[in-house]
Amino acid sequence: MKDKLLERRDLILKGNLWRAIFLLAVPVAINDFVRSMYNLIDTFFVSNIGSMEIAAITFVGPLNNIIRAISLGMSVAGTNLIAREIGRKDYNKAKNIAMQLFTVAVFIGIIITIVCFSFSKEILLAASATESIMSIANLYFRLTVLSSPFIFINSAYIAIKSANGDTLRSMNVNLVAMAIKIVLTYILIFNFNMGIKSLAISTIIGTMFTSCYAVYDVFIRKTVMKLSFKWPKLSKQVIIPLFLIGIPIVIEKSSVAFSFIVVNKYVISFGEKVLAGYGITNRINSLFFSAVAGFGTGLAPIISQNLGAGQEKRAKESIKKTYLTALVISCAVISIVLPFKYSLAGVFSNGDSAVLYHTVNAISVYSISVIPWAIFQVTSGIFQGTGHTKYNMFISIMRIYCFRLPLIIIFTKFTDMSEYSIWYGMLLSNILTGFFAMGLYYINCKNLRLIGDRYLQKECI
């Protein structure tokens, strides 16, 4: 019987490209959608506790996202390096890279947990947490960082499955994990009155479940990519390209998360109600933005495998098809969101008219940026697939420090737009980022090549 990995490899390298794109992208999009849905359900649960709790989780969110940015950087790098070796049919080298990825992920996850748990209050103060939300935010942050080692294990697992073209399996596991989180959160809030602690506890248990399955799937289940429990020897031939590709992603995603910390300072200056509305809008947006983000993530291993097999023309064809798909879906999404903005906002404002007002206004303005967001995400997938993640870092730095923050500061300081300064700053920065990303791809599209191959071509087994 032919292994599923080999079947997916044949599809990616030789089969129908539309089918390959949807096979890889749709599970990722669904997975991201479900994760965003979970965050939205969290917000709904917390809205039954109070607007101050919503403000607290909104404030802590970017800090947790910085941690996830580090794990994502490793995941993207791992996917790229493993996928190109699968494209070359060098499965031993692919497994060796996967083993080293797991080892580094566990080590970094433990270190982050220790540091953040020990210095949580100092970190929150540095992020400008106000006295009114400090105690709630500190409790939530200290508990959520305990899940960091499992988050890193799960990111390594997703990297391996994505490189194999098996995004469906990781999606199914995450669906079960999300269901566990939702049920536990409901029980802990409404049956045991545990408040905001319930969110963190259910997150830890859900991520633990995924980690346990990940270990079974890659270390015990018999597949072409079955890994050994033997402790691997770390080699610079793998570690150098892993960090060469991963660090720009970490900087990129961390910069985005940090920008939200800075933006929070301006939002909270308009009051906790505005911050609550801003947090609800971000979670609603993330739900629908995930529908297009998955196509960028799904495109990356298609590019890596095809370039690894020397098929540049096919890689470029997959890019054109993915751009078209993401744009169509993003237009469809915004046509659904805007007519139902009052209904969406009303679900999470819990009868608070001020929170409802700010949420509706925010959705009306910057939810439209899902269209340029689609362009940005597909372009990001292209550079992830080639390993040129420095371009993604460059795009995000431009997005934050040249577009978003300057616009918000100018609107806040020199106009009387009030909280609309934030909404229009977010919208315009995403539009400018979409144009900038397309321009950067156009400049580099003539010669797609994999980065870091000079290290991997050396013996590393």
Secondary structure blueprint with pairings:
Elements: H1 4-14, H2 17-47, H3 51-87, H4 91-118, H5 120-126, H6 131-144, H7 148-164, H8 167-191, H9 197-219, H10 236-268, H11 272-308, H12 312-337, H13 341-349, H14 353-366, H15 370-386, H16 389-414, H17 420-444, H18 453-456
Subcellular location: Cell membrane
Pfam family, one: MatE
GO molecular function: antiporter activity; xenobiotic transmembrane transporter activity
Description:
With 461 residues, the protein is mainly α. The protein has one domain (18-449). Helix content is 83%, strand content 0%. The chain has helices at residues 4-14, 17-47, 51-87, 91-118, 120-126, 131-144, 148-164, 167-191, 197-219, 236-268, 272-308, 312-337, 341-349, 353-366, 370-386, 389-414, 420-444, 453-456. Helix 2 runs parallel beside helix 8, helix 2 (17-47) runs antiparallel to helix 11 and helix 11 (272-308) packs antiparallel against helix 12 (312-337). The longest helix is centred in the first third of the chain and has 37 residues, at 51-87. The chain is globular. 54% of the residues are buried.
Kindly report the oligomeric state of this protein.
single chain
Q: Gyration radius, to the nearest Å? A: 21 Å
What is the H/E order?
Answer: HHHHHHHHHHHHHHHHHH
**SS-derived structural category:** mainly alpha
Tell me the β content: under 5%
Please give the alpha-carbon distance between the first and last residues: 28 Å
**What proportion of the residues is helical, as a percent range?**
over 70%
On the 0 to 100 scale, the average pLDDT is 83
Weakly predicted, low-confidence segments? 455-461
Query: How many separate helices?
Result: 18
